[in-house]
């Protein structure tokens, strides 16, 4: 298991959105490796762009899973969102924020992935720990791989537990970083 210190040794900023994103990505990558699934973190795919930049900004896939679906590699793109986003406009609807951010990721990257013989997997989660439908499907498939490789029921449950814990730990780090300093 990758230690917390190793995962955070290159970070000089206070925990924020990027920190939480990267921490969840690192834990998800570790889960894939432990399940025996071939993957690469921050994999350069040379076709993902950000249309909001107004230029072609090649960016890596958060995680590239090799041979995931029909022999095609999967570009997994993680994104975290507060479930309270849009609360003023529409009121609170459980799952609304992750569903919206998941749809945005699909609109932004799925076509480029398909055109380049890849599968796109948006992995959206909210700060309460909820997962978007595509993220749930992805983790269920990972869990099936784990189940086929282990006879222990305890080993089969670690997939959702590890990812859920990583989300909550990332949120907790953000909250603690914002506490006022107490001088004694």
Layout of secondary structure:
Layout (H helix, E strand, L loop, with lengths): L3 H5 L8 H18 L4 E10 L10 E11 L2 E10 L5 H4 L5 H20 L2 E9 L6 H17 L3 H4 L1 H20 L7
Helix pairs in contact: 2-7
Short description:
With 184 residues, the chain is an alpha+beta fold. It has seven helices and four strands; from the N terminus they run ααβββααβααα. The radius of gyration is 17 Å and the shape is globular.
Give your account of this protein's structure.
This protein has 184 residues and is of the alpha+beta class. It is 48% helix and 22% strand. The chain has 7 helices and 4 strands. It has helices spanning 4-8, 17-34, 87-90, 96-115, 133-149, 153-156, 158-177; strands at residues 39-48, 59-69, 72-81, 118-126. It has a 4-stranded mixed β-sheet with strand order 1-2-3-4, sandwiched between helices. A hairpin with a 2-residue loop joins strand 2 (59-69) and strand 3. Helix 2 runs antiparallel to helix 7. The N and C termini lie far apart (36 Å).
Name some characteristics of this structure.
about 180 residues, alpha+beta, 4-stranded mixed sheet, 7 helices, about 20% strand, globular, disordered N terminus
């Amino acid at each position: 298991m990758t230690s917390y210190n190793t995962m955070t040794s290159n970070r000089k900023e206070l925990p924020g959105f990027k920190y939480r994103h990267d921490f969840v990505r690192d834990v998800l990558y570790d889960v894939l490796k432990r399940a025996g699934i071939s993957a690469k973190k921050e994999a350069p795919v040379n076709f993902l762009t950000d249309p909001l930049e107004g230029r072609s900004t090649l960016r890596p896939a958060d995680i590239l899973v090799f041979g995931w679906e029909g022999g095609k590699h999967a570009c997994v793109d993680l994104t975290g969102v507060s479930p309270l986003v849009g609360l003023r406009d529409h009121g609170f609807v459980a799952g609304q924020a992750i569903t919206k951010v998941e749809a945005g990721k699909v609109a932004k990257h799925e076509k480029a992935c398909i055109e380049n013989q890849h599968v796109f997997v948006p992995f959206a989660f909210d700060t309460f720990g909820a997962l978007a439908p595509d993220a749930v499907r992805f983790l269920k498939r990972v869990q099936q791989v784990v189940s086929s490789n282990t006879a222990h029921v305890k080993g089969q449950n670690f997939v959702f537990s590890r990812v859920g814990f990583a989300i909550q730990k990332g949120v907790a780090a953000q909250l603690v970083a914002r506490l006022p300093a107490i001088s004694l």
